[in-house]
Each structure stands twice: as C-alpha cells, then as structure tokens.
Amino acid sequence: MERAQEEKMLKVFGLYDIRSLGVSGEKSWVGDPTQGARGISGGQRRRLSLARSIACGARIMFCDEPTSGLSATDAEHVVRYLRLLSHKYSVLIIMSIHQPRREVARLFDELILLTSNPGRAVYQGPLSGLSEYAEKVGFVVPKQVNPTDRVMDLITPGTKSAREQDFIQYFSQKQQPILDEVVDAELRRERQTPMEILHAMREPLKVFGTLPTLRHSKYAVSFRRQLSVVAARQFRLRCRDKMHFLGDLAGAIAKALLFILAYYEIGKKGSPLQAGYFFFVLMASSIDQVKTMPKIISERTIMKLETSEALYSEWAYILPFTFMSMHVWFWSLMVNAVMESLYMMLSGIAKDATTAQVMSLPFLLLFMLYNGFTVTIQTCPKWLAWAIDISPVAYAMEAMTVAAAEYCVPDGPPCGQDGLYSAIVPHFGYKNRPKQALSVMCACMIIFRAVHVLALKFLNNIKR
Description:
mainly alpha, two-stranded parallel ribbon, two-stranded antiparallel sheet, 4 strands, 59% helix, elongated, ABC_transporter-like_ATP-bd, ATP binding
C-alpha cells in the first residue's frame, strides 16, 4: 500500500488518530500481552488485524467471530468499522457472530440465522423484518426484547422453548423458493470474464488512491518492496527488544573472555594448540544459533497469517534473517550462517521449540563428529567419507588450518616451519580448496533455506 492508502485505511478503522484513548495512533506499538509488552487495547488490536487483512486489496472477507473476547463497546466498534469498510470500499464481508446486541445486529445489511447440529437456515433478511417473520411462524417478539435473542432461543435445540422445526419448515416453504428464484436468475445472467470484472471494479477501487498496474502476482507490491519492509520491521523489533539485545551482548562478551583466558597468545604457541583453538571456535559457532529456534517458532503464527493474506512471500521473511545475522558470521565463520540456516529449517518443520531442538541433535552430531579434526578423511571408513564431504564444520576447519599455515605472527614461529603445514595438514588430509569449501557451504545454506520456505508454506498451518 502507498502511504496515502495506509492513512485512509487507518482512518476507516479509527486507528489513525486515537489520542483520546491515550495512544498516538500509527506511532503506537501493538505490543504482545504474552510477553508482558503493553500496547494498544484489545479492540484496537482486533481492528488492526482486520485492516491488515485487506491491505492487499481483498474484495471478500470471511470473519469468524471477530467480536469474541471483546467488550460490548469494542464489539460494536468493530462491526461499525466493518460496515463502513463494506459500504465505502465495496468489500463483501461475511461474518459469524453469536448473540449480538440489538445495536450490533442493526448494523448488518443481511442476517442469516442458523440452527445448530446441523446448521439449517431459518431466516434471511434485515433485522427490521425479523420480528414480523417470527410472528408469521407463530411466535410473538415483545418490543422491549432483542429480536435476535428471542429467535435464537427458539431455534436452539435443547432449550425449553426450542421450536426450531417450526422455523425450518416455514423457511423451506416461504423463503427458500424465493431465494432459489434469485439464484437461478443470477445463474442465467451473461457471464463476465475476469478482466471484465476487474474493469468493473476499478471505480470503487479508486477510493484507495492511484490504481496499480495489472500484476501477474498475488502480492500487491514487488519482492524488493516486500523485502525492504520486512527487513525494516525485523530491525525495529530487534532494536526494541532491549533485553534480548543485552543478553546477546553479554553472552558474546562472556564467550570472548572465556576464549581469551583459555587461548591467550595462541598465535605464539605450537600448531597442535592452534588447531585445537580452531576446532573449539567452530564448535561454539555451530551451537550458537540454537537459541534462535524458540523465537522463530513463536513468531511463526504471525508470519503464516500475514503470508496467507498475501502481504509478503516466505522468501521475503527468511532473507532478512540472513542479512541481520551477517555481522556475526561475515567477520567470524561461514559455518555460523550455515548452521543458522539449518536451525531455521528445523524451526519451520517442527511443531514446537522442544521438537525442533530434538530434531537438531542428529544434524549436530553429524556435522560436529565428522569435523575433519577428531574424525578425519584418513580415519573414517570409506563408506562414511561423504559425511565429511558435506560437513560445513569440516570444510571450515580445513580452510582455517591451511590458511593459518601461511600466516606469520610477529615474534612467533617462522611461517610453515613449526610443522603446521608439513605435518598436521597432510596428517588430517587437508587440501587448499577454498572454492569447493565455499561452494559446499553456500549449497547447504541455500538448501536449508529452501526447505524452510517449503515448510512454512505447507507445514504447521493454522487451524481456522
């Protein structure tokens, strides 16, 4: 949506300027009650969800009890704003609601009353005609009584006053034939092509602002726009989550201090100790991103809601995580990015954080055991050599060790004369093949990300 369109939509739902409620409209945080983060009220949150649902220009909305859990005032506000949306933007809204107040029921253009177990239609029409309809069936509705409450009591099986069969029979005899005639007449009308329907809808759509050009995608904006918006949101969320940021910072400082104390002046020491240092750095990088799985899984429901409404694609959601973590692995180890991709893939497949952590153990054992250091190409069985060939940890260990053989430390052993290249490298079967190492790591990362996208599309769908 363009800026002007966004402002119009917020105004339609009464969210643009609500300072009287103590909130400054679009500058307010939504918040998350489950995390103790205060934000907008429940009614405002519900209206914002509805506004989000039509951000991509939806023409039909199905709302399943949008007023449940709200106060009577908030429920009326939600229905009133939906009515305004329907009349102003020509959006067809079909809503289910239980026991609406008289003020709420009056807002609907059409009411369809259903019995339960099974659902059978007993009335279709405006609220103003419900009392007269009930009298024709044989039941009087007092003027001071809400007609919907009275009729719902009569058509609900199991209650003392239940008379649902009377209403079902009257509907099938009186209203059903009329509705069938209307449906038949519509079916006999000349059909329109999709393009003709789109052209006919252009006039009511102009209230949204400048109409976009015809697109061949279900998304209202380009992928670049999706990527920039989602990345900006992820950045804002990360900046706002001060506790998480401080926790990451404190953890990084603690790990750095532990490595400093354990491997102080490691560059001046022998090659076996240096190789051990590389190994433990890789192990720390491999397990460092496990902490991201619970957070990713907790955000998955919101992501699936937004992608199902065609606000953005799954790739636009996943790629910003790579960019946001680039400052970690770009300066340390490529293996960190590969393992993060693995954990994100498992977060998309698993139903919860516990399952994701359990599923990560076989991958961790595979990559960390066949690491080219404790288990090398020389020592593992030939039929298991493939495990080292696909292990990002093994390639990182190999590349770091070979590179270190050509690196000179001031006041340290001469380059290549302490046995690092002449003894350790041949012993472990290391080769100078940075292109192959980079290719395998990139391939692993791309595969993990692609499987993550497929998992987000087809697994753990929201049960509506």
